[in-house]
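thought: fold this chain, then report.
action: predict
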Amino acid sequence: MRKLVAIAIFCSIFSFPSASAQISPTLAISPAKFDLGVVPGQLQQVEIKISNRSDVPIPMSVEVMDWAPKDSRGAIEFGKSLPGHSAVGWFDTSEKDLLLDAGAQKNIKVSFTPPELTKPGSYFAVVMFQSQLPSTYFEQGAQTQIIPWIGTLFFLSAGEPPAFDETALTIKSFSLPRFSFGASEVPASLVLVNNTNFHLAPETEFELMSLRQRTLSQASQEDSIVMPGSERLIEAKLETKPSLGIYIGAAQIRLPNFSKTVLTPTVFYLTSYHLAVLGLIIVALILAVRFRRRVVLAFRVMIRSR
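observation:
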């Protein structure tokens, strides 16, 4: 599977009404995510390395939690499951609580067994390490106490995904601004809908082309996971400085044995130079019209005076 779109390493910060912490607890974790195939009824085991980069020991608890997409941009919400896709009940960890010395690291064994009757599809969980810091770790009268949470995301796929075609991954919309005035970047926006029971990781390539389909600018996205039954917004910036003209946006979506290209309506591009020239032309036309009216009026007055 390709790189994960959303957050791989994360830190949840809770603020309490009191400030300036005496310590600055820092944790690191590896790997940030697992993307694995599983067999129903078969035990699998992996290791997670947790490191304490602080100068004080940190007590922490280990908890397996649900997670789900918070929005279409790839943000994650913890403690909430995607209906029918929770793997939390599959997990067991070698330790529930641990004390990690300053500068130390430890390997935590995590095992999981999908039930025998697990249906084909993707299932998700996160192994979260939550710091358990007592109030003695902080100065009296402190305004904030920073307590880091850090974890590893699990993407577990049971069975074989269906054959990829246009019904598996639907292109809901693709757009570029119809007019671009002097910008050095043209934003592209693509919305995909995953109609399968598996998470998908399409490769997406955006292009800005001339009407003769000559490529002027490209941008690729390879880390955008589309969750089962969910929408995903994929955005890119096409860095380019084309001349005055009319262009077309294109997006190519690729999955194993499947590729689809979609085009946008035409994009009208004006640089700041062309905007300035256009402004001067408009001013000149206005002045010319006014001058012409004055000439006509003067000519009429002259005729009448005769």
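thought: worth noting. The CA atoms of residues 126 and 153 lie 4 Å apart.
final: tokens above.
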